[in-house]
Amino acid sequence: MKKILIIEDETIISFGYRLQLERMGFEVIGTARSSEDAEALLAQEKPDLIIMDIYLKGTKNGLELAQEIHAREPIPVLFLTASTKPEVIAAIGQLKDCTYLSKPINADSLEDVLHRFARSANAPS
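^ that's the sequence the OP posted. Answer follows.
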């Protein structure tokens, strides 16, 4: 089973993601509301995938946090964002093992992307 960490500053949105993911059969190993909370969780847990918003509470935004995470470990990141700014979408495209879905999130699209991540993680190297 894939272990997922949710990094989202809106508690109710984070809770909704958790419910969706668990219904799909994924294990949510934690939720973080800020970049600092996320870093503390990542010091204790190793997720297979991170679901993250672009705009977070704390000192770093999601793009900056993803860059720091990837400097340490190649954990894939799925950004769930309401941002349609071309510079944000381009920045996501520059990050290795990162993709995004636009909010509001369609459950079928989310499940499709998660299963693609799972298949690529299980593919022989």
